[in-house]
Design a protein that fits this description.
elongated; mainly alpha
Length: 219
């Protein structure tokens, strides 16, 4: 029976029993869906040392479980950087970004944005998007201070980066009226860029941010 006392080996063995041969061809390792992994995480509860052990397993599902069960208050910047070195998929990145935001590791955002590795750069913008959406008490100034990073990396054509940059811009713009105006202004600037990727990011973000439903909600 899986529970808070289960160690990393117990959890990995349990994940093995959930293996889906139907899904495994399209997914690394066990082929277990994220909802099933979240269900295991709810039973296992938070345990930071165990999460570190799960991460070392190099198994997709175990690493997701590590991210779901790590303790944000105990996560250090050094641990986050170490885990980021192993990022190899958007789903791991986006889950980790939520954890890093909850842990308050904002100092990583500019460093990750400057990193040339695709998944680490994506992490920076996934963190911005997560902070804009989930940190209700965060100051608007904090979010708007990340806008230059969006502008600076809007020309990165790599799929997982450009989508995250777009996501970050839209998330800031949807937060409230104070954030909406500068986000829409940047979207319009990018939409006129000579760079194809920046144009796509700008046009797509401007389309959503100028929508009547969103404007009505923000007002």
């Amino acid at each position: 029976m899986i529970g808070p006392s289960s160690d990393a080996a117990d959890l990995i063995a349990h994940l093995e029993t959930l293996r889906s041969e139907e899904n495994v061809a399209g997914m690394a390792r066990f082929g277990i869906s994220n909802p099933d992994i979240r269900a295991v995480a709810r039973l296992a509860k938070k345990d930071h040392l165990r999460a570190i052990q799960l991460w070392r397993s190099d198994i997709r599902e175990a690493r997701l479980l590590a991210l779901y069960t790590a303790e944000p208050k105990r996560l250090t910047t050094e641990e986050a950087r170490h885990w980021a070195d192993d990022f190899n998929s958007w789903e791991i990145v986006d889950c980790a970004a939520d954890l890093f935001v909850e842990a308050g590791l904002d100092e990583l955002i500019s460093d990750f944005a400057a990193d040339e590795r695709e998944f680490i750069r994506r992490t920076a913008f996934a963190m911005i998007a997560g902070a804009a959406a989930h940190r209700k008490m965060e100051s608007d100034a904090t979010l708007l201070a990340w806008m230059p990073l969006i502008a600076a990396h809007a020309c990165d054509p790599r799929n997982f980066v450009r989508k995250a940059v777009n996501w970050a811009l839209r998330s800031i713009g949807k937060r409230n009226l104070a954030c909406h105006a500068p986000a829409l202004a940047l979207a319009k600037i990018l939409a006129e860029s000579p760079d194809k990727t920046a144009r796509w990011i700008g046009k797509d973000a401007a389309r959503e941010l100028a929508g009547e439903k969103l404007l009505a909600r923000l007002r």
